[in-house]
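Cross-check.
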Amino acid sequence: MKKILFMLGISASVLAQSKPTYYEHIQPIITKNCAVCHSPGGVAPFHLLTYEDVVKRSKFVAKVTQMKYMPPFPADKSFQHYANERGLKEEEIELIQQWVAQGSVEGKKLSVSSSQFTVGSKEARSSLTSPKPDLVLKMQNAFTVPNTGVEEFRYFHIPTGLKEDVMVEAIAFLPGNRKVVHHSRVMVDTTGRMAGLEGMQGADPRLAEFQRIPMADEFLYGWVPGNDKIQFPQGVAKKMSANSNLIMYLHYSPSATTQTDQSEIYLYFAKKPVERKVKSLILHEQHITNPPFLIRANEKSTFYIITKPLEEDISAISILPHMHFLGKTFKAFAITPEGDLVPFIKIDNWDFNWQMTYQFETLLRVPKGSVILAEASYDNTEENPLNPFKPARDVTFGWNTTSEMMEMVIYYVSYQPGDEKIKQ
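Predicted model, tokenized:
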């Protein structure tokens, strides 16, 4: 025992004597966990690309990482674990603390290997979607976001040019202008009757004509700030039929200056045989059990969703919850016929500006006969600093951020024995 304590004492002494440097110790942490957002075109308000960038905010970086406020990951990891979890290891947090406390030493610049590049560059953004996509689909025309300071909701029609059916094993969305692109929803049409949607506003009365046309896939993919590329497990994919077209619904944030956007969708085709097709379970305000979906002014409200019992065993791949500024908490889970709980997600402090698709660490089995439940709470009082209205007013459903939503999308496949061991 004395020998172990002696060795630990030596290790601590060595660590205390050696000063961590930016290039050797801190830059790898920042590049891996922070720089994608804190770079040109990223969603963060400042850059963290160079020593100069980081050192002038070193105390701030130390504080927000010690608080575990950054990098952001709203979901409760004690409720469920995910393949795409973000967060620093305790030793990484401590290393940043030491670096700042000991003077934020720059150190010797390391040689850059051929595999490295400037974060935020075109090459870096492309690497986020590596390997090379099989099909890149760009908006047919650049859209001009006016300088009116008003939110824009627009539909865009994107022909795929597919000559045969394909199985899509991964999907990514690259916003053309991160300053104004807040979120997108991508759907699939196989009727060939949706071209007239191009550039149409979400409030256009003509939209009702198109909404009567059934989509082949109501939710191929959704992107919000913080979301990643979705990569399905091997042998699992979304089907896209020949001659299908994409319908992209884009929400643009208010802008005081004229901006342009021409966002892209990257599709990756399965190279090996696909055994199972990915399905989407979409639950929203129309499914709540305590209607109406109305949040009275100066009140706090909670709404619930309960599905019908599942007709088959399923394996859940991921979950994407969605609310707006009044949202405070979100929780979703399943209850099996035996009364067991299958946890999906628990968010105790909803962050409208940081939403994502949470991919479960392994496929999550939900037995036949289970019911899926969701619970979302809202704060429509003036004590809520994010309340868009002062004084508060009644708020109901709407896609504008001044309205509210309660939605979640679960990607899943039919269950097969052994799914619980499939890591994502």
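Helices lie at 2-17, 22-33, 51-55, 58-66, 90-101, 122-127, 207-211. Residues 1-16, 113-129 have pLDDT under 50 and may be disordered. Passed to J.P. for a second look.
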